[in-house]
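Q: I have 305 residues here and want to know how they pack in 3D. Can you give me a structure?
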Amino acid sequence: MAMRRSRDPVLALQARLTERDKTLLGWLYDHQLLTTPQIAHALFPSLDFAQKRLLKLLHAELIDRFRPLRYGGGSYPWHYLLTHLGMEHVTSARGEERPRREAATARRRRLINSRLIGHLLGVNQFFLDLAGHARLRGGELQTWLSAQQCTQPDAFGVIAIPRIRPDGHGVWSEAGVRVPFYLEWDSGTELLTVLVGKLDSYRRHVHDQLPRWPVLLSLHSATRERNLHDRLAQAGAPAVVATSSRDYLTTHQLSPADQVWLAHGAGEIGRLRLAELADLATDPPPDVLRQRRERRPPRQLSTYG
């Protein structure tokens, strides 16, 4: 007697998904938008392999895609995002409330028409470069939180309403060393005074006895990086600040995990690896952590990364 096929599309597709598929769907749920090259670098051995698997997920109606036109001609790579069915898969695995179809449709339309796509993809590129480094050269991206996730009361391991609004939060582990960090991704369009002003919220964050972790500033260019350090020397850095420039990484074919970080106020020590910034990070006093963790509800574990 033939086994009856499930009428629930979520259950029907579950057996066809690999752990890599689940990681990708979880990333798209949390971080909204990824391109083909980003996905291939972080998860697959080749671009061709990634494209073939993405087509299968596309045909299964778990993901959707669009391709923006370039100003002056041509087009960008495919941009991938979740469908309603893809969102149902992730929320079902996490034990969360399933999204309404209207909400999923509105999210897709908002993303497609957003003026902030470049910034969103830039932030995601930073973390996917770390994931790609881990896949090819070792290390582990243990935590990756989006800007939205950073606004949650328990985002940084303690119950407190964050004063800061980073573009992302991560925890990088390498050779037994673990470094948590906040990310500020700079597009190069803001005045440096505005960028320096953003750091004031981290002073209040530390004053509230919240984690004093490095603030990583991923800057548009090496020139902007030098100018920022000059400004910080005049104004004073209100937090542990380390900078790198994306043109430096591109020129030398390096990743954010490599020896690319200039810690402000560290003298002539030179550029450091990301893991070496762990020496600059401090957590709140143990009694504060203990009290806040006791008030923290248990977090739902997820198989979706």
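Q: Anything worth noting?
A: The longest strand covers residues 177-185. The CA atoms of residues 43 and 132 lie 7 Å apart.
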